[in-house]
């Protein structure tokens, strides 16, 4: 028996907010293309829908756990849409924990997940999934072109880094981390811890270039930022 | 052992689209009040969120089953929000079929559901739930004041009916029924069939008056339209 | 990856009542034969066993929901027998809802189901399954030779129709439909709605000719009645 | 917190074969009466329905495991009927293993089960359930009046024993045991082992006297045979 | 309806390694006593058994995810033992995720859990559980008398602190944290993040004094170290 | 479709107690080798860990059912370790009943189980699994070289039997059987009953020679004792 190498793609929840169906259509093409030579896992964020429900929940005085759960359920709705769009090559049910993911992953299909647990971002989910699938690379497709030396949405003069170490990334993100439900930035501490302990390479890229993903993976095309495990 | 009578409240998905948290807050007050003398089941529609995901799915050429499933998942997100808002008096997990509902209902808690199955509206879910809980009354809280002799959103001169038979209702709605995912009006044929065979009284009311619900139920306050089983 | 086209076979519950094992043995041969070029889903009715338990339940004053559930559990017993008889080519557990079916269907095996939900017949289940599997044809194997212009068990002079539109079928069946548990005739309104919205061709045939099924499907052999989606 | 003592009632599958609804109606009255002072678990056999499906399965060359599973599914259909008949005092879902039983039992409701596993009778299930619920007594309601010195269906001169030890019972049953699916007599070795190791008193009685069960339990009324743990 | 306040007790896995049954017997007495005025959740660590299986897994070259899962399964074995020992007041099944915990918690019983997910300690589980149950206090029962200014197992001159802020604790533990499976110390970053965002008071105490726990909680008896949310 | 023949390997719980990782490493090599020509199921015992938890449970006055459940959970921990060690060729979740096993087995992967139910040994589980998979042979790998004419751990002069009938084995083991949790010897009555009714050949061997297993199976190498079905 021969098994293809695995790869994990983390899709920003913002992906669904505007031009959602066109974005997903591009993702579908890329994943179909990749799935002949890779086993693919996809993790979807919650986006504006997550934020909307978390905000209603906050008005209703729910505690942080339940706010995070609303964000998780919103991300699962996105994950369902991707899974249904992929059709027969994808597992048609979204797992709700890492153990559940592992069981569904054993089917040999593409598995699409949303959030798993309060207290962690979907980036942490992606890192856990990358570790459990022995993936050497985790793609983070988000709404900026890569990792900058400071938050590019705040600082006009932020400079993008083609390559950086995980420790450098930790240092950069340290200040921007918030612990409130729905507000984790890029990668939260859990994500970073997993990436580090299992030495997973992270590529941060803009989801606008999602259709170049198979070039990036197969031909090492120069897109986004690469975070080196050490 | 003594068991309180049961009542089912079907909440329009539009309830969440505008002033969502204020609407839910009113619902929470009413349900807490009711739950001392009634066992309460709540069924939530999908609203604009359902329509948004169904529309993306349609762009992606999904079949009707999967479009309905997207609407169902959107309604479950709404149902989760209500369940979490109700706190300890509600069962904290949303059932995904009538059998699952029956099991969770046996806990004695308020149970909140979204959709169950492609091919039927959440109004059909509400009718099934009313039948399985032996409820004599089903409240349908929607965005019009009651049942009109024709669609009030289309015809300015539509006249609201304080009381009508189920057969009259069938006749009125017959023309407006569509079979496409996410487009069922008020009550679909499945809902009507269940209501009829188990002789369940339906009250259609505007969700703007949701805070008067306990008056309506306990004191027979004159709100909305009453559909008589026969 | 290449996927075979899908086909759905709805087996009457009466199939098990007399010569059950011989009938199933024929079905097994046909399905084994078909399964090299088709993905096959099978939906089993409840038969006399369903009627027996529903009748006991009615004596005990159960509500319609629970009577339907007894019929559903009886149909699942039949479904189990078929699944076990098919051995390794079939999924060994009977799904209990469409979502559950979809998950088990992703295994690539033949999936056998009984009923899903109160308020609908196993013919509705078959239609839902045909839609979710993108099947273009649904075979209904029952105890009459096809669709007649009126009920052939009641009217001696009923004439069988080799081909008819779904609207013609609706018109014919309209009067014979009952809403009581266990009494749906041939195709209920839910089945018809699904067949219509997804334009699924239905072939109604006598299960006595089940061993000719692969001829029918592969060589278009002239058996039973064909219901044209429009 | 105070917990009522537990009692387990094992109902023969033959109970459903003739006068089924009248028998269940009597059982319902007795259990409602008992449930104010006892926690009640009910285990149902498979009866003629089990034998019918096992016989079809045998014609189809299924192995013993799958034949037993058919009998188990038939007994679950019976268990569902009892559970639905009991209404709100019963847990509405039939457990499928002892672990599942233990979870549902923690609800505080009457729990009704059928078979659990191939290779053992529903009497073994009843013994396992009695042990897990710390019941001191297991009632076996069957179609003979009690334990006889030899099989009363075979030997006209069999003598009923008002009281006997478990070892005496073992000796009597030893010869009549068969290992084929669906043919276990009264109590199989697994049942006997559990009863012995946990010193559970067994009362074997005719289900025709089921309406006297609460007299038997509460007032020690003299019915059937009592098997003393040692 | 009135609900008692909730409290969470995190039990070190070392609790089971020596005098296990005596320790659990004390815990049982305390929890029975507490459960009249508190709702109690218990989280159990993995102890030497976790370390043994993780070490075997490491010899076999398993990745960190699977090593953590072995530790989780070891902690669930401990959790089962506690749950069984508590009998009817406890939920008899150990949940495997926070969502599962929330469902079981709604039963009103004591719920006992082990680990939930790779990448986090059972102390993080305890913090998540405290947040989801709106507990204002989390008890951490471990093998040292409280929080010291440095690791008391390493430094003879470590000084115990009766009271400290969460930020002070973070500072103290920062250096001792490891990311390898099975090696988290006292509280890991996830635990600290949850405690902080939901302002949960943590009391670290020696499990040798577990029988004084109800005095501690009810009468504010002076045991261990108190970590103030801010 | 062609299916490989199935084989079941029962691994003593003692396998994990000493040199655990080396033993598992050998087992992994053998199973990888076998899995090209056989479908393999593995059943793992509980070993010293089971005995430790059962002994704590007994100190705490748990009933036999719960003691057996502790042993079952200990055996599942062992089963998890084997499943994780096998990686992609194994199903990553341990089933908890025969029905659950059958579902997971349909995946086509190696399935690893621990115990299923109180009242029976893991050898009974292995026999049930062998029957459900239509295996003609069951390998029992334990800590003695085969079946002796009396217990070799007690009697120095015990003589090993290269071949014996199942009835001879019954006779030998009859006296050594105990009904207490965790104390079943070699094969319990349930195991023997299943083996007999489905005519399964049993080979008892020392797990020290586990690396010769594929020689034994493929080349009929002369190891251990063979128990002939009749
Ligand atoms: N140094 C940095 N480099 C790049 N982006 C940064 C940096 N610091 C902060 N960010 C912010 O991180 C954001 C991306 O992370 P964010 O978590 O908001 O989105 P996401 O995870 O892709 O989507 P979602 O959480 O909705 O699924 C960017 O929009 C950017 O503003
Ligand atoms: N005769 C009628 N009387 C009242 N409303 C009618 C009638 N005919 C059509 N309608 C339409 O039914 C609508 C309410 O049903 P609809 O299914 O759209 O909402 P809902 O079920 O409350 O919400 P959702 O489906 O989003 O959960 C009204 O807005 C109205 O336009
Ligand atoms: N126009 C018609 N043409 C053919 N059959 C009809 C027609 N009208 C009514 N029927 C009845 O439909 C019956 C078949 O449907 P029915 O639902 O009873 O069986 P089934 O679905 O095959 O089995 P089951 O419901 O037991 O699974 C026929 O026996 C016939 O009497
Ligand atoms: N500053 C400190 N104060 C107290 N304990 C400390 C400190 N720093 C490190 N420790 C260590 O933390 C240990 C307790 O945490 P640890 O995670 O080992 O045990 P646990 O969580 O109780 O058990 P388990 O992880 O096995 O369930 C102590 O034995 C002590 O050596
Ligand atoms: N006649 C016999 N021949 C062989 N072994 C016997 C015989 N009688 C008793 N035994 C005992 O059976 C033991 C093996 O069975 P046992 O159930 O203890 O281990 P296991 O099933 O391999 O492991 P575990 O139950 O821990 O999973 C041997 O160690 C031996 O002492
Ligand atoms: Co994010
Ligand atoms: Co609607
Ligand atoms: Co029918
Ligand atoms: Co029997
Ligand atoms: Co720890
Ligand atoms: Co053993
Ligand atoms: Mg589920
Ligand atoms: Mg289960």
Automatic annotation (TrEMBL), chains A, B, C, D, E, F:
Gene3D superfamilies: Acetylglutamate kinase-like
Highest taxon of the lineage: Archaea
Record-level GO BP terms: 'de novo' CTP biosynthetic process; UDP biosynthetic process
InterPro entries associated with the record: AceGlu_kinase-like_sf (IPR036393), Asp/Glu/Uridylate_kinase (IPR001048), Uridylate_kinase (IPR011817), Uridylate_kinase_arch/spir (IPR011818)
Catalytic activity: UMP + ATP = UDP + ADP
Record text on activity regulation: Inhibited by UTP.
The EC number(s) this enzyme carries: 2.7.4.22
UniProt binding sites for ATP: 10-14, 47, 51, 142-143, 148, 151
Top EC class, one word: transferase
Binding-site positions, UMP: 46, 68, 116-122
Domain (Aspartate/glutamate/uridylate kinase) ranges: 7-206
Subcellular location: Cytoplasm
Keyword tags: ATP-binding, Cytoplasm, Kinase, Nucleotide-binding, Pyrimidine biosynthesis, Transferase
Annotated metabolic or biological route of this protein: Pyrimidine metabolism; CTP biosynthesis via de novo pathway; UDP from UMP (UMPK route): step 1/1
Self-association and partners: Homohexamer.
Protein name: Uridylate kinase
Organism from which the protein derives: Sulfuracidifex metallicus DSM 6482 = JCM 9184
Source taxonomy: Archaea, Thermoproteota, Thermoprotei, Sulfolobales, Sulfolobaceae
């Amino acid at each position: 028996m021969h098994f293809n190498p695995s790869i994990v793609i983390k899709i920003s929840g913002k992906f669904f907010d505007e031009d959602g169906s066109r974005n997903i259509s591009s993702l579908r093409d890329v994943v179909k293309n990749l799935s002949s030579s890779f086993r693919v896992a996809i993790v979807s964020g919650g986006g504006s829908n997550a934020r909307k429900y978390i905000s209603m929940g906050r008005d209703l005085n729910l505690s942080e756990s339940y706010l995070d759960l609303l964000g998780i359920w919103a991300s699962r709705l996105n994950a369902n849409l991707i899974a249904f769009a992929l059709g027969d090559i994808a597992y048609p049910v979204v797992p709700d924990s890492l153990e559940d993911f592992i069981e569904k992953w054993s089917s040999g299909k593409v598995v699409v997940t949303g959030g798993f647990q309060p207290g962690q971002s979907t980036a942490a989910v992606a890192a856990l999934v990358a570790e459990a699938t022995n993936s050497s690379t985790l793609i983070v497709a988000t709404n900026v072109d890569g990792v900058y030396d400071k938050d590019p949405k705040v600082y006009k003069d932020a400079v993008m880094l083609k390559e950086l170490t995980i420790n450098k990334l930790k240092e950069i993100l340290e200040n921007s981390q918030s612990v409130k439900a729905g507000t984790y930035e890029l990668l939260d501490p859990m994500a970073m811890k997993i990436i580090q302990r299992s030495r997973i390479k992270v590529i941060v890229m803009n989801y606008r270039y999602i259709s170049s993903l198979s070039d990036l993976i197969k031909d090492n095309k120069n897109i986004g930022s690469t975070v080196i495990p050490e």
